[in-house]
Amino acid sequence: MALQKFDTVLAEAFEEYVYGESPEELYEPIRYIMSLGGKRIRPLLTLVTANLFSENWESALSPAMAVEVFHNFTLMHDDIMDQAPLRRGKATVHSKWDTNRAILSGDVMLVAAYELLGGIDEKHLKTAMKRFSRTAAEVCEGQQLDMLFAEKAEVSKEDYLEMIRLKTSVLVGFAMELGGIAAGADEDTCRQLYTIGENLGLGFQQTDDILDVYADPKVFGKQVGGDIIENKKTWLLLRAVEKSAGTPFEKDLLGWLFVTDTEAKVKGVRSIYDALNIRTEATELAEAYFRKAESGLAELNVPRPGQKEYLQTIIQQIRTRNK
Burial of 9 by CB count in 10 Å (0-12 exposed, 13-18 middle, 19+ buried)? Predict the structure, then answer.
């Protein structure tokens, strides 16, 4: 069975799922953001992980959908907070309609996520709900830290990595853990799955930050250089500040932070990153996380070890993505 089979089942399930019908103004934005597709890495991880333990991996379909709906709920609200114009190459919900509608439609998506999670086998429901609720709170904690960092004069690289662990990686970790829970894996194994996913999520976000600076705008689907324009304290910027201290680049980098010409600003900061070899260091850090995920997967004891190849493929796809 090819990996595409999991994708197809997910796509069909989302196509058929009804979030609600009336009022149309409430549900239209939900259908819109979910129709944009995206990579759907998280629900795919849930299904492929369940497949490590049971041939009946489709029993994890509804919980897997819950993870993706929740993820898109956070994107809808994050876009409002970031005032982002594009999501997956299309207008964000708040810019296509308005902020109030985006907030309310996002709230309904959170409700839908819990309803979908309720589709898990009843004997696993309490564990799944508890872990999902904790993960959802951590994602919000990460988003709050992200906003606080915009106001703080000094943020360490360690602070940043903890922020993205909460904002991004815990949901990837939970997606894999949920696959184990749905398939009846024991508690220790589920913890291992979570750790693998957490490392994969850290590598994913670090790669995302690199792409934000260096991706092809025609492929990326979001505004390239958005983090630079917003003076977002990514690992790349924090490392550049650290490496430029006491050099001529220090003044140049500080100066670019106050420039309003966005195109010139992106080019200027990118040139400093290039001179300081920041992209290479950031890529090495992402690779370290991917290797940890691969190592954890190799050590994982599962009843269907031959099915690990699907997870290995996903890790490689994330590692080499260009958007």
Answer: middle
Q: What is the pTM of this model?
A: 0.94
Question: In 3D, which of 210, 195, 206, 205 has the Cα closest to residue 294?
Answer: 195
C-alpha to C-alpha distance for 212 and 230, rounded to whole angstroms: 12
CA-CA-CA-CA torsion sign (84, 89, 93, 94): positive
Tokens of 150: 């915009």
Helices and strands, number each (H, E), in the chain: 17, 2
87 DSSP β-pair partners = 90
CATH homologous superfamily of 23-320:
Farnesyl Diphosphate Synthase (1.10.600.10)
Mean pLDDT of 302-312: 96
Residue 42 CA to residue 68 CA, distance in Å, equals 6
| Burial category of 309 from C-beta neighbours within 10 Å (exposed 0-12, middle 13-18, buried 19 and up) | exposed
Query: Where do we find the tokens 């999501």?
Result: 87
R_g of the chain, CA atoms, integer Å: 20
- Token pair 């749905």 in the structure block, residue: 182
Q: Which residue has the tokens 């050099």?
A: 247
| Beta carbons within 8 Å of 160's beta carbon, 6+ residues apart | 149, 233, 234, 235, 238
Most confident of 150-154, 212-216, 219-223: 212-216
Taking each helix axis as running N to C, give the angle between helix 187-214 and helix 278-299, from 0 to 180 degrees, rounded to the nearest 10: 160
**Rounded to whole angstroms, what are the CA distances from 155 to 40, 225, 235?**
31, 20, 10
d(Cα 148, Cα 262) in Å, to the nearest integer?
23
pLDDT digits (tens, 9 = 90+) for 161-186: 999 999 999 999 999 999 999 999 99
287: phi then psi, degrees, rounded to nearest 5:
-60, -40
Show me where the domains of the chain are located.
Answer: 23-320
